[in-house]
Design goal:
Blueprint (H helix, E strand, L loop, with lengths): L13 H25 L7 H9 L6 E2 L10 E2 L5 H7 L8 H17 L3 H41 L4 H10 L5 H10 L5 H14 L4 H32 L5 H22 L1 H31 L7 H8 L2 H4 L4 H31 L5 H15 L9 H23 L7 E3 L6 E4 L4 E6 L2 E9 L5 E5 L2 E8 L2 E3 L5 E3 L2
Helix pairs in contact: 1-9, 4-5, 5-8, 5-9, 6-7, 6-9, 6-10, 9-11, 10-11, 11-14, 12-14, 14-16, 15-16
């Protein structure tokens, strides 16, 4: 869990001393093994070798561990008889030692006249030159890599992922425990992650007893030494999570990852303590966020854009990230504010529209208000009908007054667009000139009893409606200029 990456300074304490003593013990053991590896194997005579070789069974195999090792060796080579005969246990042989033992076996094969024993010698020398020599080389390399990796891991800054990995290493000698190591290494810092990969690869070539001494026991001591400090630092980190939606998200991920990924490393008591801290911090952050949102809602404008402002503060996606109680607080505050805004806004709109004069400009103002109302978000839907009804009623009053002032025959009137590119010129009682950019067409018109005007040009008729000083129904609106 990359988000949980606590580090802290290790204070001198007995656990740390115990860890260092444990490392020293492993180093002393390794030095003894190195000294043993430096001594050359004995070269017994064939009279001593023959009884040993007679016990060879090519089908009786030994593996260094249960981790899926690629090495399978004749079991005789790791027996006490082999150690007594050649003066060194096979696990301390070098590649050169394996070849030296092979020379002894080859010489005895040439000297024997026993066909069955000769066959055993032949199988043994073949195993020595390939499997035993290869294992000795791989084992020496694995010991070096594992020691270097453990030193790097034990000197890395303590963190929850590092604690988790050391805890997992306590089961590294078992097949199931080994299989879990790659996942346990997730979240480690780059240097520790590289060391963990080196160690995981090296373990497959180490004998089970050496895994216990070199890895399992030191890892257990290290985990014990760092556990209290990691828990303390992690609690501090949880309490410092910022008041923000990303902060809530981080705490949610912690709440999932702690019991799922880190409970074995932390232990039951520490895990429960951590989860309580996460829950408390999340509740505190959610309350503060809700307080801010409620305040923002209360400060929304009381104009036509107020509903959009309220919706922004009470956004559904945002509220779903809050606990139910805090989300309900914000939702209720938004509902109450919408009602307050609607009441105040309706009163203000009614006053302003009532004061408008009976002019075309007044119609424009009412139309602008209707467009604003139509654009309100869905949350304002309960208030729309009252506003639309009030605006349309006032528009009808203004329009009636404007129409009354504009009543009369069309003869002699001229209607134009603002840029004068389009114009209707009603010449007399039946004829009309229609001016378009670069072209003027002559047509006829008739006035209907309901006030509509039917204009016919080149055999095509268009119905225009009068609205105050305007004509609607053409591809562009024109207003009376004469």
């Amino acid at each position: 869990m990359t988000a949980i990456s606590v580090s802290y300074v290790v204070r001198p304490r007995t656990g740390h001393v115990r860890r260092m003593l444990g490392v020293a013990a492993v180093l002393v053991g390794a030095m003894g093994m190195a000294a043993s590896a430096q001594a050359q194997v004995a070269r017994p005579d064939c009279e001593a070798v023959a009884p040993w070789a007679a016990g060879f069974d090519r089908n009786d195999e030994w593996q260094p561990n249960a981790l899926g090792s690629r090495h399978r060796l004749p079991r005789l080579f790791v027996s006490q008889e082999t150690e007594a005969l050649f003066g060194k246990p096979m696990l301390s042989w070098t590649e050169a030692d394996a070849m030296s033992v092979r020379e002894v076996v080859l010489a005895c094969r040439q000297a024997t006249k026993d066909r069955e024993l000769s066959g055993a010698y032949n199988a043994m020398q073949s195993a020595l030159v390939s499997r035993v020599a290869n294992f000795s080389k791989a084992l020496a390399d694995a010991r070096g890599r594992a020691g270097t990796a453990m030193n790097a891991l034990q000197s890395a800054p303590p963190s929850l992922p590092l604690l988790s990995f050391h805890s997992a290493l306590e089961q590294a000698a078992t097949a199931q425990g080994y299989a879990r190591l790659p996942a346990s290494a997730n979240g480690l810092a780059p240097a520790a992650s590289n060391a963990a990969r080196e160690l995981i690869a090296a373990l497959r070539d180490l004998p089970e007893a050496e895994i216990a001494a070199l890895v399992v026991e030191p890892a257990a001591r290290t985990a014990l030494a760092m556990r209290d400090g990691v828990v303390e630092a992690l609690l501090t980190e949880v309490r410092a999570v910022p008041v923000s939606l990303p902060g809530l998200g981080l705490l949610d991920r912690m709440a999932q990852a702690l019991p799922r990924d880190y409970a074995p490393a932390l232990g039951k008591e520490a895990t429960e303590s951590m989860l309580r801290a996460v829950t408390e911090r999340r509740a505190h952050i959610a309350t503060e966020i809700a307080d801010v949102l409620v305040a923002q809602i209360g400060e929304s404008s009381r104009d036509f854009d107020a509903f959009a402002q309220i919706d922004q503060a009470a956004d559904g996606n945002l509220l779903r990230q809050l606990p139910q109680a805090q989300a309900a607080r914000v939702h209720d505050a938004a509902q109450a504010r919408r009602q307050v805004v609607a009441d105040a806004l309706f009163s203000d709109m009614t006053t302003k529209l009532g004061a408008l004069p009976a002019t075309d400009a007044a119609l424009d103002s009412v139309d602008a208000a209707l467009r604003s109302i139509a654009a309100w978000p869905a949350s304002a839907a309960p208030f729309k009908p009252r506003f639309e009804e009030g605006a349309r009623k006032r528009r009808a009053e203004i329009l009636a007054a404007v129409d009354k002032a504009e009543a009369g025959a069309m003869r002699g009137r001229v209607y134009e667009t603002g840029d004068k590119a389009h114009r209707f010129e009603f010449v007399d009682r039946t004829r009309v000139f229609v001016h378009e950019p670069g072209h003027t067409a002559a047509g006829t018109y008739t006035e209907e009893k309901d006030g509509r005007i039917v204009v016919t040009v080149n055999g095509e008729s268009t119905v225009l409606t009068r609205e105050g000083r305007r004509l609607n129904g053409w591809h562009t609106q024109v207003s009376r200029t004469k």
